[in-house]
């Protein structure tokens, strides 16, 4: 069994979805396939904007919801024959009414909590995956749509929940191993806590969903389909002669993604690394390109440098003073203060004299 994940750009419009479906049809001929789908490009930001606008007491949120609704309805009409549209249009309208109900509540309370945020932005993936599944069915590709919230269990850390792997793996294996379908479609990014509340895995979390699924069922491969042909030696927006990287080790991919490479969501590598499941970054718009293969060991290419990454908007903080020398506890206090504010520390240096961090 293999896992294919399609990002927002790959399902942004009818033409892109048709491209994705052709890839799915070709791939699913070889072995059973699980497809993980992101929200349509830009929809998650619009849902967040609607919630934040409502929290300010601004009725403009209704126009944002109307735009979201219209885009999905037009997508259904473009992808499905008239005889197959009714149930999917009904699904879209029902979900969009729920979006409006949530935003109405936010507007009345003037409160947009992280719990409500997760509930609201989950609709992007629910809508896109359902529409993709309907299009697959309409083109003769029988598939089973499954809500990922019923399978992936997390803690209650809303907007960036931590996965409970024991509970999640048990649910995934219980669902997929006896199942007889050759093709499954799931929304990425979303999960649920022990109380059944919707949680999300962090922005970019659809990659993570694919890796969680792949590790649980010990997939033959996890393919991340996006709008670039793999990871590159540098950011092509900044470096004109950046080149594709054909192979990376898990450790190299984790380093590059953690330090700014946007092609893959950083936590994605961890679940597949323990099971040694290969990950391939592929381009939906150039499917014949080889992409980047991420596996246990990368090929030696004659240079110790695999790639150069960059992070914008990073702060350098120095704590120093002669009163720190030989006094225990300064490091604990500094990093505890940062951790309490959920600030991520990417690099630490300390003087050998102990008087500066």
Task: Summarize the topology.
Blueprint: E1 2-6, H1 14-28, E2 33-37, H2 43-55, H3 61-79, H4 85-109, H5 114-138, E3 144-145, H6 165-176, E4 183-187, E5 190-192, E6 198-200, H7 205-217, E7 222-226, E8 247-249, H8 250-258, H9 269-275, E9 279-283, E10 292-295, H10 330-340
Parallel strand pairs: 1-2, 1-7, 2-4, 3-4, 7-9, 8-10
Antiparallel strand pairs: 5-6, 9-10
Helix pairs in contact: 2-3, 2-4, 2-5, 3-4, 3-5, 4-5, 6-7, 7-9
Structural description of this entry:
The chain has 357 residues and is α/β, with parallel strands linked by helices. The chain has ten helices and ten strands. Strand 9 and strand 10 form a beta hairpin. Helix 2 packs antiparallel against helix 3 and helix 2 packs parallel to helix 4. The longest helix is centred in the first third of the chain and has 25 residues. The radius of gyration is 22 Å and the shape is globular. The model has no long low-confidence stretch (mean pLDDT 92).
Helix content: 40-55%
Structural class: alpha/beta
Order of helices and strands: EHEHHHHEHEEEHEEHHEEH
Count the beta strands.
10
Largest sheet: 8 strands, mixed
Distance between the termini: 49 Å
Could you list the spans in which at least 5 consecutive residues all have pLDDT below 50? Answer: none
Number of H/I helices? 10
The shape, in one word, is globular
With strands numbered from the N-terminus, the spatial order across the biggest sheet is 3-4-2-1-7-9-10-8
Task: Determine the strand fraction and express it as a percent band.
Answer: 5-15%
User: Compute the gyration radius: what is it?
Assistant: 22 Å
Mean pLDDT: 92
